[in-house]
Design goal:
Chains A, B: It comes from Streptomyces cupreus. Two copies of one chain form a homodimer. Chain A is α/β, with parallel strands linked by helices and about 325 residues long. Chain A is built from 14 helices and ten strands. In chain A, the strands form two sheets. Chain A has a six-stranded mixed beta sheet with strand order 1-2-10-7-8-9. Chain A has a four-stranded parallel beta sheet with strand order 5-4-3-6, sandwiched between helices.
Chain lengths: ~325, ~325
């Protein structure tokens, strides 16, 4: 069992406080995708829920713990999905939720955060600026700061996906996981290494936001000056040391993919699987497209982790990809 | 308990032979849709599975029964979804599957039937022509004819959706069900009337293919000379008397909707729920759009029953609907 910060028994226990709407998500073979990809592909679909991403698995745990001590306030920085999920989990438990986001974050995500009655503070700069501002608010107001990937509950929530994958009756060889801050990768990776150690755990990050992948390969924290990718959900620049330590224990590889491959992946999921997904959710398909030989004849699970897009941006992106007939 | 051809205990038992990939599908509140619709809306999503429709719930039961008696042959007529589902269920059990479809059926559905190794026979004419041809093949070859909605297993399969709705911890007022041959409506309707009789069961059919709805209102079989709708999955003209008898016992109402409303419904699901759906799956949203006062303040579940579309047709359709900003 990998000696990460995570514990499988605690993950199983945490699962009990998560609203069932976020659990036992579809896992299914998608043969229509396979001729284009050259391998067997199954989809773990994390978008058919009230917040259209996996993030509520973690915020349900966080909000449940906070609510146990009466009405509380909590603040987080978010590219949008964590904030939406925290707003959802907090609203139903009477928590006072503040989300800090970049002014350049995806508008559709910001709209949903507002609609869920959270306080939304926008900052100039990118997600790293939002992280600093959220920390400053927490210090100023003496309230709980939720830090994605650093807070163990965000990893435990994501890890419940791993429990569902490990329980699958259909054997598979590889799981492809979008890599940003690392909660999803370390969470799912921990459980796979514990319960299904023969399964290959591969992280995928955009070439334009490669900080965590560079860190994993160099086995030390590597930061970047900028993050340029349409995959807004994984566009961090400052990896968290404790998360990197865990990732080093559970990931078998970390791949970088080009923007054109992310877009091609979104298009494939659209044309052949009938799925609208956000760019981060297409990283797995992008990795297969760029590494056909590596995955040939294997059975790969890709976690479709979110579908919150500005719909006009989405259609502009996929219009630039090869069509479904090619 | 309604005295239909269905039996809730038998439905529970039948559930055991259905591949888990088709069961316990997502059921979730979709608040982003609600400002446009004026009521609380939950989605029961039947598209995130290997055949992208609910039809495999029934074909799993059919194929399982057939396979119990050794390798068998089976033929069905289909607008596409039943055929795809039967091909999937039959392939894994070594059955010899023939699907008869109209030459004008949705190409994407026919492609998937072929890809799943079924024999596909195309006929000139519409779905009713295909039904006659399938019956002739069954007589000629002495093989099992699967007739959608008439064969009780197709209704029992659909009825397992009702079990999941009745088990929901979230109370709701109304379920909106696409009405074609009637398997989905009688199946789900039977279970709701048995286990949650306070829930309103409303069927929705296109104005351009109204045979079953006219039959329900007139309490006798009414056929039509033509069926003109983009909702190919529900475009029958000859209601089956036994199915109508059941529908009369379990449906509280049957509504007809215009093609423009179906398209508007598809567009709403696309823009606000991030879902690509086929026209039949948008009938429920179309009904809300045409009857806002009736559903105002109610909590409505709509069964999103399929997502198999020709993607170019789909985009041509939704391009004609009002945009998400209006």
């Amino acid at each position: 069992m990998p000696q990460t910060r995570l514990d499988t028994a605690r993950i199983r226990a945490a699962r009990q406080v998560i609203d069932p709407a976020f659990l036992d998500t579809p896992l299914y073979r998608c043969e229509a995708l396979e001729p284009a990809l050259g391998c067997a592909v199954s989809i773990k679909l994390e978008t058919a829920n009230p917040v259209r991403s996996f993030k509520a698995r973690g915020t349900e745990i966080v909000a449940s713990l906070l609510a146990d001590h009466g009405p509380q306030a909590v603040v987080c920085a978010s590219a949008g999905n964590l904030g939406q999920a925290l707003a959802w989990s907090g609203r139903r438990r009477g928590l006072d939720v503040t989300v800090v986001a970049s002014r350049h974050a995806t508008a559709a995500k910001l709209d949903r955060i507002r609609a869920l009655d959270a306080r939304l503070e926008l900052v100039d700069g990118d997600h790293e600026t939002a992280r600093k501002r959220a920390a400053a608010i927490a210090r100023r107001d003496g309230i709980r700061l939720l830090e994605d990937s650093l807070d163990i509950q965000t990893c435990e929530g994501a890890a419940t996906i791993g429990l569902e994958l490990a329980d699958s009756t259909t054997p598979f060889d590889t799981v492809l996981i979008a890599l940003g801050g690392g909660a999803l990768a370390t969470g799912v990776g921990h459980v796979m290494k514990d319960l299904a150690p023969e399964t290959e755990v591969i992280c995928v990050q955009p070439l334009g936001a490669p900080a965590m992948t560079h860190s994993w390969h160099q086995r030390r924290v590597v930061t970047t000056d900028s993050a340029r990718t349409i995959a807004d959900g994984v566009a961090g620049r400052y990896p968290i040391p404790a998360v990197l330590d865990d990732l080093l224990l559970v990931a078998d590889d970390a791949l970088l993919v080009q923007e054109t491959s992310i877009i091609a992946g979104m298009r494939k999921l659209h044309d052949h699987a009938g799925l609208i997904v956000e760019p981060s959710a297409a990283l797995g398909i992008a990795a297969i497209l760029e590494n056909r030989d590596r995955f040939a004849e294997r059975h790969v699970v890709t976690i479709v982790c979110g579908s919150n897009v500005n719909i006009d941006d989405y259609h502009r992106w996929i219009a630039t990809a090869p069509t479904h007939t090619s």
